[in-house]
């Protein structure tokens, strides 16, 4: 592949304003070409791009196209920066009036040097907020697609779309469906701005000559006009790749805008490495409908503030995953100590969850056409969610890790929408770690709060996710939670129900429909705050589950807790896969005695503190 850096524009506005500036602050920049002005991090703008593409493994040659007016400046720059002087192309123009136009400059380099290869084109006078992005990712994504490639980014608040080339990109295929050069306000809702950063296949290079033949006016020979013609009129397949950063072509701005964007991008660079990123995700209780989330059913679940997983990400020289001293032990008091810990907690701590999330995150971004910066980090985690009692402890760690990665790499909700995020977390666990799980926990941990979820088959088949509706959390009743002090593996409770459901066994199929019906009735109870009705439905949920899973499968520990709660007149059900129970006691006076009874039975008992994201600051 060949890279061509374009620096042939005549920056009349910026150059004139630098010369006429009376403060004296910019006198040393008078007459300096745009691409050789200071960029982010103190280095010249062109220095950054040359460092980025100066890799023989990626590019066989790199060319620089400039004009006659500034040719000597770039020749001197080339000598000082080990850039091959013979690869500096002079387009012969000396003023804005006799300029060739950006597309003609590209064609000149291709024609004069007889280039016959795939080509990457970059504006060498473009400020880039991210000084660490991996250009190899761009090439890999380009090679994976049957067409050209246009780089874009999401406009920041305050940036107007009518000053940029705006693309509309298909989220599934990543094909650019429409290119609008500086569209009028209201013409498109897209905030995705194309920049002068493209990849062209060698077989598509003749389009450049054809475009120039049909567009003789120099004002039309811009890349914006070229892509409008190529995508909208010629229908050539062009794909989009997002860089989670910002770009500014300084040739199109004045001195105040140049200094503003330089300061803005520089401040981002200074802030990013020093601040650790800490995110939390919360345990959840399934309050209705579970376990039908894995069977095209409906559920209601709630995040609780009592228990959480917290992940901290810090930028570092190498990528490091730190083991948790309790959950990923590497030192033991004795062989007997190792035996007891391993027998109770197994061999699977949280470190594998961090690693699998990072692996899946990189894979997702590569497949979605999102180029990540070449930054490393250290991840560590902490959690107080009890293990093996079905409170979604594993998915909480994955969810919190994903939040950190998204913040670190500036991945937005548009890049990874909440419904897709829940699928992502589930895939980390099922595809990478072979954990048996459903979508409910991941959805409620992404949306947070009290969430109604519909996993009906037609929704899942049509779009890959269900209908997720946050419910009002004001004036909720007092829920309680109890869990076994020495639980077994909660995953065993699923038994053979899935296979029976897949086989179409009518008892199981009808049960899953009944779970969905109970969930709809519970939603109505929440909306009208009919808590006695909700308590009744919780009991019905447990009995329905008991009828298809059987007492043998539920296990003596879970049944003991259910029976104990019912002695005090409390509604009770399983909040997850087993090892804990969640209850709703309408007689608050019974709670103290019930708590004592659970504690004496070897269980841990607590009153639930709902986590409502709308009522408190959260990561």
From TrEMBL:
Chain ranges of the Nucleotidyl transferase domain: 32-236
GO molecular function terms attached to this record: ATP binding; glucuronokinase activity
PANTHER family, per the entry: WITH PUTATIVE URIDYL PYROPHOSPHORYLASE-RELATED (PTHR38710)
InterPro entries reported in the protein's UniProt record: GHMP_kinase_C_dom (IPR013750), GHMP_kinase_C_sf (IPR036554), GHMP_kinase_N_dom (IPR006204), Glucuronokinase-like (IPR053034), NTP_transferase_dom (IPR005835), Nucleotide-diphossugar_trans (IPR029044), Ribosomal_Su5_D2-typ_SF (IPR020568), Ribsml_uS5_D2-typ_fold_subgr (IPR014721)
Limits of the GHMP kinase N-terminal domain: 369-449
Pfam families: GHMP_kinases_C (PF08544), GHMP_kinases_N (PF00288), NTP_transferase (PF00483)
UniProt protein name: Glucuronokinase with putative uridyl pyrophosphorylase
Domain GHMP kinase C-terminal: 529-601
Organism placement in taxonomy: Eukaryota, Metazoa, Chordata, Craniata, Vertebrata
UniProt KW keywords: ATP-binding, Nucleotide-binding
Organism: Triplophysa rosa
């Amino acid at each position: 592949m060949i890279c061509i850096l374009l620096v042939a524009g005549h920056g009349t506005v910026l150059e004139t304003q630098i010369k006429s500036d009376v403060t004296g602050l910019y006198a040393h920049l008078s007459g300096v070409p745009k691409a050789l002005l200071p960029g982010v991090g103190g280095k010249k703008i062109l220095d950054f791009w040359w460092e980025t593409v100066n890799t023989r493994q990626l590019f066989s040659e790199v060319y620089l196209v400039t004009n006659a007016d500034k040719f000597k400046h770039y020749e001197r720059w080339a000598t000082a920066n080990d850039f091959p002087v013979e690869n500096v192309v002079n387009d012969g123009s000396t003023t804005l009036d006799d300029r060739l136009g950006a597309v003609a400059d590209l064609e000149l380099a291709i024609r004069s040097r007889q280039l016959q290869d795939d080509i990457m084109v970059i504006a060498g006078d473009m400020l880039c907020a991210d000084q660490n992005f991996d250009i190899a990712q761009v090439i890999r994504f380009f090679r994976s697609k049957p067409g050209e490639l246009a780089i874009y980014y999401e406009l920041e608040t305050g940036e107007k779309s009518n000053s940029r080339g705006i693309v509309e990109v298909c989220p599934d295929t990543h094909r650019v469906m429409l290119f609008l050069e500086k569209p009028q306000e209201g013409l498109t809702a897209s905030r995705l701005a194309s920049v002068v950063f493209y990849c062209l296949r060698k077989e598509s290079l003749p389009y450049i000559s054809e475009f120039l033949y049909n567009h003789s006016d120099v004002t039309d020979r811009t890349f914006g006009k070229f892509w409008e013609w190529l995508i909208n009129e010629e229908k050539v397949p062009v794909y989009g790749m997002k860089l989670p950063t910002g770009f500014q072509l300084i040739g199109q701005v004045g001195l105040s805008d140049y200094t503003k964007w330089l300061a803005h991008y520089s401040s981002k660079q200074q802030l990013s490495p020093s601040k650790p990123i800490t995110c939390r995700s919360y345990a959840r209780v399934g309050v209705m409908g579970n376990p039908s989330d894995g069977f095209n059913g409906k559920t209601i679940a709630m995040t609780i503030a009592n228990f959480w997983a917290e992940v901290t990400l810090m930028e570092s020289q190498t990528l490091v995953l730190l083991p948790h001293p309790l959950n990923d032990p590497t030192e033991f008091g004795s062989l007997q100590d190792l035996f007891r810990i391993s027998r109770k907690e197994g061999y699977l701590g949280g470190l594998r969850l961090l690693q699998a999330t990072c692996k899946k995150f990189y894979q997702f971004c590569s497949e979605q056409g999102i180029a990540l910066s070449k930054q490393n980090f250290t991840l560590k985690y902490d959690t107080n969610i009890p293990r093996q009692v079905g409170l979604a402890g594993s998915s909480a760690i994955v969810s919190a890790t994903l939040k950190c990665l998204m913040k670190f790499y500036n991945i937005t909700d548009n890049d990874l929408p909440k419904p897709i995020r829940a699928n992502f977390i589930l895939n980390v666990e099922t595809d990478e770690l072979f954990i048996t799980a459903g979508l409910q926990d991941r959805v409620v941990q992404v949306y947070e709060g009290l969430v109604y979820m519909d996993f009906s088959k037609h929704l899942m088949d049509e779009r890959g996710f269900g209908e997720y509706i946050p419910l009002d959390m004001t004036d909720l009743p007092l829920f309680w939670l109890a869990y076994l002090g020495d639980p077994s593996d909660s995953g065993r409770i699923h038994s053979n129900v899935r296979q029976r459901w897949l086989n179409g066994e009518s008892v199981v199929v009808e049960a899953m429909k009944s779970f969905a019906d109970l969930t709809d009735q519970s939603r109505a109870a929440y909306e009208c705050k009919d808590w006695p009705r909700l308590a009744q439905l919780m009991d019905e949920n447990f009995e329905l589950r008991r009828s298809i899973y059987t007492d043998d499968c539920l296990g003596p520990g879970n049944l003991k807790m259910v029976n104990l709660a019912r002695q005090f007149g409390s509604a009770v059900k399983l909040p997850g896969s087993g090892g804990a129970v969640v209850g709703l006691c309408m007689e608050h006076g019974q709670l103290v005695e019930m708590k004592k009874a659970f504690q004496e039975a070897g269980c841990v008992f607590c009153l639930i503190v709902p986590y409502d994201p709308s009522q408190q600051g959260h990561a």
